[in-house]
Design goal:
Blueprint lengths: L10 H29 L1 H24 L5 H29 L1 H20 L7 H17 L1 H45 L3 H42 L5 H11 L6 H17 L1 H29 L5 H50 L6
Helix pairs in contact: 1-2, 2-3, 2-6, 4-9, 7-8, 7-10, 7-11, 8-9, 9-10
Length: about 375
């Protein structure tokens, strides 16, 4: 080293610095993306739902289009999907209405059983404390009646926003199913010529990953819902169908959603059937968690992108912190898509580098 020259930097510090500024750039971009989505979250949610619907119904529409005109095939597919969803909701509503009287009686008796159970060993809670809790709940509801009413009114406004978002999602899905390829071609042609090829490679990798993840997570959710619904039906736990539907929806949040939904089922079982059945439901939580974590989710990730469980967990938590429930649902497919695009572009660059090294004459 020459006198007066700056000291040499250790190689590992150079590597760490190189990765550090890249992580800062990626973190800034992710934060900016969620900030923009937070400002226009209804539009972002609508487009995301539209893409989910497209990933699910596009193969069906392509199959129906073999015998019908494209526009009629899309209409039949979308209307069939809507009818299926409304049918499931009607089934759930019928199940709840049919069990309402029995459910109220069982929960009233179950609340008494839980109180007596907590008063006995090993908990030995003071009966007066439980009565005090009930009195405090009633006092809270009475003193905050106006607040609850205002929340209900604001909930009506939120219902309008939800319906608007669903309408935009359905409209987007119809356009994506009918002419998604032409829309992608038009978008790609608006870019500079030097970027079109890379954007096309990244876009196709992103869609391939997104559709694979969507199909896989729906399979996981449906399997979990069938297992939970069948088990609760065999245990004669009330509201088996609604709880199975809750499990289906919760499974879209990997690693976290299913245990939360099954915990709700355990509480219902505890209130309606007692500690023994609730304990069986808790055991069911462990069994389904093992099936989901070691069999179903690895299958899903093999269809899309293999992500380490720690990456999945961090993505879910970060998404929930950034955007609540929606962020928890969107986080894993978003990370999967970003990683697949990165991998596809890296492979493309490797192929181009190999061809460049071979030269025009094939390396001879």
């Amino acid at each position: 080293m020459q006198p007066g020259s700056p000291p040499a930097v250790a190689p590992f510090l150079r590597t760490a610095a190189a990765y550090a500024w890249r992580l800062l750039v990626v973190g800034t971009l992710v934060y900016g993306l969620f900030a923009v989505l937070g400002r226009f979250h209804e539009i972002g949610v609508a487009v995301f739902l539209g893409l989910v619907i497209t990933a699910l119904l596009r193969p069906v529409a392509d199959l129906v289009a073999r015998g019908l005109p494209r526009s009629l095939a899309v209409a039949v597919t979308v209307l069939g999907g809507i009818a299926l969803v409304l049918g499931v909701l009607a089934l759930v509503g019928e199940a709840v209405a049919g069990e309402r009287t029995t459910l109220v009686r069982e929960f009233r008796d179950g609340a008494g059983r839980i109180e007596h159970w907590l008063e006995r060993p090993p908990f030995r809670l003071d009966p007066g404390a439980l009565s005090d809790v009930q009195a405090r709940i009633g006092q809270f509801l009475s003193s905050h009646r106006s607040t609850l009413i205002s929340e209900a009114v604001s909930g009506a406004h939120q219902l309008v926003a939800v319906l608007t978002t669903l309408a935009l999602a359905l409209f987007s899905a119809v356009l994506f199913i009918y002419s998604g390829d032409r829309q992608w071609t038009w978008f790609r042609e608006q870019l500079p010529g030097s970027a079109q090829a890379r954007v096309d490679v990244g876009g196709r990798a992103a869609w391939r990953t997104f559709t694979g993840y969507t199909h896989g997570i729906v399979l996981v959710a449906a399997t979990n819902a069938v297992l939970v619904g069948l088990a609760l039906w065999l245990l004669d736990v009330p509201l088996a169908v609604p709880l199975a539907l809750l499990e289906f929806a919760a499974a879209f949040i990997p690693l976290i959603g299913s245990p939360v939904a099954l915990a709700v089922a355990a509480v219902v079982a505890l209130a309606a059937k007692g500690p023994l059945v609730a304990g069986i439901v808790v055991a069911l939580i462990v069994v389904i968690g093992q099936i989901e974590g070691h069999l179903l989710h690895p299958l899903v990730m093999s269809w899309a992108v293999r992500l380490h469980p720690l990456v999945v967990a961090i993505s879910v938590v970060a998404g929930s912190i950034a955007a609540g429930f929606v962020g928890a649902v969107v986080a894993v497919p978003l990370v999967s898509v970003v990683w697949s695009v990165h991998s596809a572009l890296r492979e493309e660059r490797a192929v181009e580098r190999a061809l460049a090294e071979e030269g025009p004459d094939g390396g001879s």
